[in-house]
Q: What sequence folds into this?
């Protein structure tokens, strides 16, 4: 047994050395720096921060480098590191209405106070490979720009003035903390939104797409999508007031959904909501669609059996770290389990063979 353990230990050490060699690649090529990843692969960095629940671009870039570009592995590294950090307190809720917007668009109103700001987006590109990048020839400079001014009203406020959209809920009760308490079903909306923020982008996208195709009857408009920086404030008891401790970049999406009314609610528009670290608009839109689908019960709608309406299905399967752990554990040694299964199959085959012989003899 000792020999087997030592042999396994050497194999693991060799595997670690091999992966380090693979991660480095050709040593004749300059090593990729953390700053390069942070600045030039920013969308990957944003995803790792969002699903890792830790806003730190440098650490997210380090995790991507260590994981060889495997974003789920990088998210795992960030979450593991996050558990080692002390917690000094909680920040005040951020005011996205005071966001300095780099991008702000609406699919429901053309003319907005503050204007529509296209910002940095792939939406209007031709999706053709740019071989100038392969030749290191990128030298484009964007025109001078300024972020949209603060205190930009949300588009849904316009509908709210006419009473055409449901009132946004106001609850000062501190929400549960998913990073400290295990998820339990049924889950209130605040907890569902936390889970969706950390959820795998691809899984959330697939669920959102399913609602648009009829699995949940979720016909949505993007009321507003905004990306920008907001100040983060923290209350300091010794001072008796809040102080700004930094800024974070967020993506916020509010969807406006058709609603014909129910036994408990009149005909009106309803809301879906998404809020994610960094420029992560695909995830924010997907999150808003799934959020709206999960609200069927509180709005008095019928459950048509759509996957996106099933909170237990959505929330228990959306976390890519939990999914990865359960999926990949099956590649680890299961020798004893398999041997017992193998012996059982052999026994059943012998029994079936003996029964066939007996039936033939009769």
A:
């Amino acid at each position: 047994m000792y020999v087997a353990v030592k042999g396994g230990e050497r194999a693991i050490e060799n595997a670690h050395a091999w992966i380090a060699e693979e991660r480095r690649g050709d040593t004749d090529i300059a090593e990729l720096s953390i700053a390069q990843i942070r600045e030039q692969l920013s969308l990957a960095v944003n995803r790792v921060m969002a699903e890792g629940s830790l806003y730190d671009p440098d650490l997210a870039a380090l995790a991507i480098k260590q994981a060889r570009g495997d974003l789920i592995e990088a998210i795992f590294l960030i979450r593991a590191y996050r558990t080692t950090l002390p917690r000094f307190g909680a920040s005040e809720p951020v005011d996205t209405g005071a966001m300095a917007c780099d991008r702000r668009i609406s699919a429901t109103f053309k003319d907005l106070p503050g204007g529509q700001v296209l910002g940095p987006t792939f939406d209007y590109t031709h999706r053709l490979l740019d071989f100038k990048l392969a030749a290191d020839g990128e030298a484009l400079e964007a025109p001078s720009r300024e972020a949209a001014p603060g205190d930009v009203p949300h588009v849904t406020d316009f509908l709210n003035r006419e009473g055409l959209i449901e009132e946004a809920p106001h609850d000062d009760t501190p929400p549960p903390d998913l990073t400290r308490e295990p998820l339990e079903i049924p889950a209130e909306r605040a907890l569902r939104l936390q889970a969706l923020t950390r959820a795998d982008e691809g899984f959330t996208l697939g669920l959102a797409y399913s609602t648009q195709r009829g699995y949940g009857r979720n016909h949505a408009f993007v009321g507003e999508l905004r990306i920008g920086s907001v100040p983060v404030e923290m209350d300091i008891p010794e001072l008796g007031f809040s102080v700004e401790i930094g800024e974070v970049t967020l993506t916020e999406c509010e969807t406006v959904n058709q609603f014909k009314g129910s036994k408990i609610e009149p005909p009106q528009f309803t809301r879906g909501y998404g809020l994610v670290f960094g420029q992560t608009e695909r995830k924010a839109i997907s999150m808003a669609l799934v959020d709206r689908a999960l609200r069927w019960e509180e709005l008095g709608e019928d459950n048509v059996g759509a996957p996106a309406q099933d909170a237990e299905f959505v929330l228990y399967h959306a976390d890519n770290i939990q999914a990865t752990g359960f999926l990949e554990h099956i590649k680890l040694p299961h020798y004893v389990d398999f041997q017992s299964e193998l012996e059982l199959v052999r026994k059943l085959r012998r029994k079936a063979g003996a029964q066939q012989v007996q039936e033939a003899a009769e």
